[in-house]
Model the fold of this input.
Amino acid sequence: MRSDNRTAGQLRPIKITRHFTEYAEGSVLIECGKTKVICTATIEENVPRWLKGSGQGWVTAEYSLLPRSTKTRVSREAARGKQTGRTVEIQRLIGRALRAVVDLKALGERSITVDCDVIQADGGTRTASITGAFVALVDAIDYTFGGFGKFPITDFCAAISVGIGPDGPITDLCYEEDSAAVVDMNVVRTGAGNLIEVQGTGEHGTFSRDELNALLDLAEAATDELMANQRDVLGSVADKIGKVYPDAPAMAFEGDK
Done:
């Protein structure tokens, strides 16, 4: 039995609150059990130097743990003057996950930065960040763009942690479970069922091909549930994902809306 009495494949309670902050084009508070992350999406009329003149946009992410998001205070990385390797790894993962479901050509020469700030950490912060960041990204694009020939978001995207505990494979590990897991894995999937990323590590032992398959089965069911939650939260906006408007004018930027 797990410490919080969940079954092996059961998610922690999930809550996604849209329009959580005042100024960002898209903002979300995602709560996965005790883990809480604020995700904000900002759209700017510029692109990195290597994309200028390409007609293509860019999506990137930044990630941080607030000092008392954990049981003991974590120093601000800005105060240390350097990001940790963990932070760099996580924000690159978030960026890759989001870009996998964005038509960068349809975005035009615009950049979207999604900031994921963990205000309370109890395991699964990177996967919660991806799941929440996707909703913030959709809201930012829906809010900002007027007429367009194609909605730049092509599919849903969600992520989950799975692992092998003392009693076998489990879904959505809290910090206590993650710390003791024999195997820890993060899985990112699309609404079409395709894998964006699989990060699996034998923390305290090895795992078999059969165990890998079992973990992926758990991740598939969990991410399907998360994407259903995203769809419910987005309401009618969800219907625009992947939609093409052949008679619409060229994409217009309405940053002063």
Q: What stands out?
A: The longest strand covers residues 35-44. The two ends are 52 Å apart (CA to CA).
